[in-house]
Amino acid sequence: MFKKLLIANRGEIACRVIKTARKMGIATVAVYSDADRNALHVRMADEAVHIGAPPASESYIVIDKIMQAIKDTGAEAVHPGYGFLSENMKFAQALEEAGVAFVGPPAGAIEAMGDKITSKKIAQEAGVSTVPGYMGLIEDAEEAVRISNEIGYPVMIKASAGGGGKGMRIAWTDAETREGFQASKNEAKSSFGDDRIFIEKFVTQPRHIEIQVLADAHGNCVYLGERECSIQRRNQKVIEEAPSPFLDEATRKAMGEQACALAQAVGYTSAGTVEFIVDGERNFYFLEMNTRLQVEHPVTELITGVDLVEQMIRVAAGETLPFAQDDIKLTGWAMESRLYAEDPYRNFLPSIGRLTRYRPPQEVAAGPLLQTGKWQGEAPSGETAVRNDTGVFEGGEISMYYDPMIAKLCTWAPDRAGSIEAMRVALDSFEVEGIGHNLPFLSAVMDHDRFVSGNITTAFIAEEYPEGFEGATLGADALRRVAAAAAAMHRVAEIRRTRVSGRMDNHERRVGADWVVTLQGEEFPVSIAADHDGSTVSFEDGHAMRVASDWTPGDQLAQLTVEGAPLVLKVGKLPGGFRIRTRGADLKVHVRSPRQAELARLMPEKLPPDTSKLLLCPMPGLIVKIDVAEGDEVQEGQALCTVEAMKMENILRAERKGIVTRINAGPGDSLAVDEVIMEFE
């Protein structure tokens, strides 16, 4: 076995690999750019090597710099993680020539499967069903339009070397094809150094389901079930689960066997993923093969008990897989939520800055799942697991140079409903402050009826949130539970205030029993009776709720029990109440005496400032181009400018007809959130 492993990556995946290497007794080497000098993966590794400036093109994807780090540290093997050089054939070849083991597939397999155009041709030759499309290279936008019309709209424009949703656009018209073709080329060149583009038919109402394969150099290949990855936004996965709620055993077996056959056809070794589009009749079509470890691999590990990183390392060391296909059992259900530095209230635009608070929920291993690495018999009834893969820490910076992922929160339970409920509680318990993030959106999805039913497609987010995400609205029962909790918490805070030292004699403050809780536009008059074990909160209709908690004023996380069921609230202080966040809702909760509530109803509502005549920069980013000039008349939907952030180009469009009166920024300018780009009349 190797004695020293270099991880040619950063962030959470570098930390993930380090954990397994440490378990195996292998020393680790981290590499880092200027932006990552104080990163978590640098702290965790046994040694670390500086490799350049913050842009990946000057550090993490410069093969010569990685090779020099290998030489300087004497690393015997390299794990590439995902992204960056993980699917770069030249990197794999350079390692082979240097006599260093690549913890991944052979260079030939990367070449065959890593290129989307080539992989589709090989799949077709192997008898694998593929989506109709044009596999050749496309020279310009007009050729793209001609091909799109031949295939028939809608079409998917893709970067041949793409991944993670970058370099990918859906086009429904000729105009969208022209615009999408150029944007995809630009993103592909910036992210991968390869601007080749191809086009395929976009299958409507599809599910994105992928098969995890694992192969060794001795001719053995197994599949470890599937992952449902249909909850996507801008072709980037957001929530994954294993197994899929849609597949039956026959389809799972057929997809798995086909995935293994494809892998063996190109001499594949290590972990890899074969992605499929599956329609409503369970017909499946080969999409692509990712010749690397997937971001969402933890859900497969949770239902199989197999450490995929460990098996990748062992295969790279020449070992034989320790199990056959019949040994692979899928037990229970796992969910993964990707926590991104993206502001859901600003249409998920990137958010950068310092993590002033980062407190993930406590990780919990369920029974034999993570304690022994394998299951002993059936899934333990009633148990759940929580796992959080991350590469950040409280006080750390979210950089503009890299992917916006903060963490991958995973839960496991014996069944799907239990896994979803465990995820709800875990998301509510996850504290992140200082940047915009998608925790509220993830929570809202977990409560969405369509998601809970398993009736999902890749269009789920676009269909269910067509106007973007504006926060969840709690149902009547959930609202009453929060109202009861807020009343009990307010009573605790009031009692604390009566005990302030130094008050004047004969000015004792008494805490009343009657209060009015106002939240989400509703009022709940309540009466509280407290004892040593908690409070009983009674509503006007006679219904009473029992609230128990050890919350004390100042705690930012309240873990309560309401009517015997857990309720987790993120709590902030407001005058006369709280800011409470739970289940995707962000609530201003006021708890007042009946007289205070009566007077509050007379107060005028403060209106937000009018910004309708301004184009504000929605995220920290770089102005790539300005599409209009001062004095131009613009129409609704017209492109105004392009802002680049976190390697993604974002086109800002006019919300209504108007005339540009002033342009305050130009190409190359770096802007902060809400800086004024242009003004209108």
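The record above closes out task 2.4. Task 2.5 opens with a second protein, given below.
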Amino acid sequence: MSRFLSYTAILGLVIALIVLDASWLHFTRSIDAKLGDTLLAQRAPSRPASDDIVIVDVDQNSLTKLMGELGNWPWPRVAFAEMLEGIDAQAPRAVVFDILFNEFDTFRPDSDVAFREAVQRHARSYFSSVLLTDGQGPALRDLPPVLKLITLPGALPNARSPLLLPTLLPRDAWRGGLINFSHEDDGIGRHYLVKETLAPGWQMQSLSARIATDLGWTVPDQHRIRLNWQQQHRHVSFSDIYTDLNIEHPKRPPDEFKNKIVLIGTAAPGLQDLRPTPLSSNFPGIEILATAIDNLQAGDWLRDAPRWVSPVVSVLIAIGLWFGFRRGLNTLWMGLGMIVVSVVIVTASATLLSHNLYWPVGSVLIWGWVYFWLAALMAYLAERLRREQAVNLFGRFLDPRVVKDLVASGQVDDAKRVQSLEITVLFSDIRGFTTLSETRTPEYIVNLLNRYFSRQVAVVFRHGGTLDKLIGDAVMAFWGAPVHDPEHAKHAVAAAIEMGQELEEFKKELTDLGADFDIGIGLHTGRAVVAFIGPENRLSYTVIGDTVNLASRIEGQTKGVARVLVSEATRAACPDAFEFIDHGSHAVKGRAEPVQLFEPKPKSTSVGQQKEQ
């Protein structure tokens, strides 16, 4: 499969997963929620809470200070009666109890009576109700009008609902609404109820929505709102106010709660009204109610971005990455680009929050990175395969170190193209090999050639040459391709000289041959076509052209003249690197004009250097 088809297949897979996730599976929903929680938690401290909302907090300090006077929790209801009297005297806009009053105090009935009487005198008080998950409950049509239940067309006349109502109070004082905790599948509360269906055709507002309706604020016609969290509201300890109300000369301001919405509730850990929210795993329930009221007052609850936005953006990012990988862009740069895109998307999401728009981007980031890593893995595997193929392909002709450099430099693709280059070609042949092979066993000849070729090819590789082929007893090599080498003539000549030196070392091992074993080496520099030639499974990297023919002809002129001969073109390409002995002009086959030939000798000051080349 081509890389284009591979990247396209991955793109199709990711798009299919994006569509399935958005429409059915929702397996990135939790990631969306967690990232959204993080952004909301970071933003909350910069959003001031409304000064119109004050929480009278039954905190741990209150439980401790009032234990001697009121005893353990739950306190006698007369304490709330006194609190309601004292606060309502300051003309608040509303006094809201985030405490259930659905049970009578059988041990202190007079206290309950005092509270009921106080509630009847103060019409600005609101009370909490809870919708249970099961049970029969009261008949909805019999509930008092003060609850302002919403009836829809087709409402069942005999419907019942398992409601916990403030039955301690007179029925005409049941003003208020539901305080059910609205949480998602992970248990985190990110929304607040606006209204809830009690039975088919019957609805009841939440406590926050009921207050908003009575105060004339805009209440959205929806099931719930997404809370826009802010700093916590001003808390006043219940014990501080209660103590101040019961002294002869109060010290607190007489208008402390004037025109305020006063919420009375519990935040003490032992009273178990702590809930998990984006801000904390133990967030006071009274503060959640205050946040909902604050959002409705300001009209700044969070509106959800259209559901199609995230999958569309995810698909666009995947397509952008597909284009990049298809064009062969560097994976590292693609990764850096994805980091930039991720930062931009998260920043955009955070910016939209300041405009009360909630856009969850966890899924967008996940799908973008999923495609990136899958495509990057595909690119890595393709590159690894390409490198392995290049090593296998060029490893037959080049020194492994040269192959490694060729692959690392990214010149492999260039090397595979047909090119016309300036190169230097070397031919080396064993003299008298035919006679030698007739006087020795085949096993001896093969062993001899293998040892000889191992030494000579090592010299070619050591000087950066490319082994073209071994032809019987001959070696053909060239310099200048596939790795670009501006000093190819110099390196080829240096290799030829060392091949002669290596032969002398080898001859010391041939005690039975002595002086009969020798070689001739010819070199020529010029342009030639360099390419892979042959069937797919037998490709040969070789050179074609007159340069090759002339190098072979020059090797044929070495007998009786010199072990190494080079052409005028080769000598001219490296005139200062060696000393050259002019051996005059020679007629060669295929050439109308004679060829001037030279024998290279290492300079006395550069012998060591030649060895190092």
